[in-house]
Amino acid sequence: MSKPAFIDPSEIRAQFSRAMSDMYKAEVPLYGDLLQLVEQVNQQVLQDSPEIAEQLQHSGELERLAMERHGAIRVGTASELATISRLFAVMGMQPVGYYDLSPAGVPVHSTAFRAVHEAALQHSPFRVFTSLLRLELIDNPELRDLAARLLAKRNIFTPRALQLIEQCEADGGLNEADAREFVTQALETFRWHTQATVSAAEYDQLHAQHRLIADVVAFKGPHINHLTPRTLDIDEIQAGMPTRGITPKAVIEGPPRRRCPILLRQTSFKALQEKVAFTDQQGADGSHTARFGEIEQRGAALTPKGRALYDQLLNAARAELKEAPNEHNAALYGELLAKHFRAFPDSYAQMRTEGLAYFRYSVTEQGRAASERPQTLEALIAAGHIRFDPLVYEDFLPVSAAGIFQSNLGDNAQASYAISSNQADFHLALGAEVLDELQLYAATEHRSLDECRAILGLAIL
Ligand code: OOG
Ligand code: NI
């Protein structure tokens, strides 16, 4: 008898993403409110802007809009990171990109686990921004020891989840029943725990060193700290949050509003104060703030040239502001961003000819029907035989991530660590190298051109 067929990892990811969203909705009711607001704004945009609706329809993004979300976790040790990497691999998610947050005073470095092929992303774009605590950035040796001891004692995975990961690695996949069980078991790692693993005094010590250290070290597992839906109009969301009793952070992170959105714009609301029980307390008398709400708008993925221009303009705007954006200078920061980003072309055609963004090329109806056709890509585009649509940015931005972390960490988080970024250490902990996101976009663009070539029967393009 043959074995039951393996289920597509993308399907496991889709199931996991739904289960995670349901769990988070039950744990943080405000997340449900946010989803409603996002859904409402997205419907409005689709209704008011037929050209946006058409483009999203054509690229398939309309289908994934409602399921689009990312989460974030923070793990404490190399071995936790290595195992979480294996857990995500069961769902077809690989580590993409390296983000060093230490220059912004956040003692972590991070990667994003996500699907890498456009077809898999289309099935489920779910991704998880995953940070590893850098214990070496704790300057107090006793506290560093305490943190290391606490982390060494805990196991953030259920025994059954570990078994299923091993089984999947050995067999090359999971059948439907095992996949279902895997989703349930894997979810346990991301659950919130009211019971802390430290006394109130130990918590205070860890917290005084850095709030993030307490968040990672004082609990049984790396609770998911936010789950972010994707909106088509983040300015509308930012304006709409207060009307629902939600206070957003002072500024939207990332590029300014544009006709042709690029990269990623994000906003969030402050972490919630939640009741927790320390080991020396009877009930949940303590409190901890970790979980927050975030919303994002995604735009075109930029080439190295486009990204360099983005970084240059963002830095120029920030330099002119002279201090970190906050509620007092938010309006000025908005003006400075808009001013500097005038240097970034705001049409897809120009972004393409200047090599600033990645695109997906496809043959049009007209192109398929034509009996005679030009032979070069540019001429085929000019003749309307091939169209191009921007590839959506699937990753994160270090400056934005730092801003999101900081808005949830309070005032003492602005100092930067002198210690330099250490991607080699991160790779060692992960047990692999992170993938280069730019190569992934270039490969997707390439495949779209190959497909056009095959359809049109051309040798080169
Ligand atoms: C992650 C913060 C960064 C993003 O979308 O850039 C982030 C965290 O707070 O753990 O989520
Ligand atoms: Ni996020």
Description:
- The chain has 461 residues and is of the alpha+beta class.
- The chain folds into two domains: 9-298 and 402-417, 2,3-Dihydroxybiphenyl 1,2-Dioxygenase, domain 1 (Roll), CATH 3.10.180; 302-347, no CATH class.
- It has 20 helices and eleven strands.
- The chain has helices spanning 9-27, 29-48, 50-59, 61-65, 78-90, 118-123, 141-153, 159-171, 176-188, 200-209, 211-217, 234-240, 304-321, 330-340, 348-353, 365-369, 377-382, 398-407, 423-430, 437-456; strands spanning 69-75, 94-100, 108-114, 127-133, 226-229, 264-269, 273-276, 286-289, 293-298, 359-363, 386-390.
- The chain has a five-stranded mixed β-sheet.
- A hairpin with a 7-residue loop joins strand 2 and strand 3 (108-114).
- The longest helix is centred in the first third of the chain and has 20 residues, at 29-48.
- The protein is globular.
- The N and C termini lie far apart (48 Å).
- The mean pLDDT is 92.
- 2-oxoadipic acid binds at residues 72, 74, 129, 131, 225, 266, 294, 396, 400-401, 404-405.
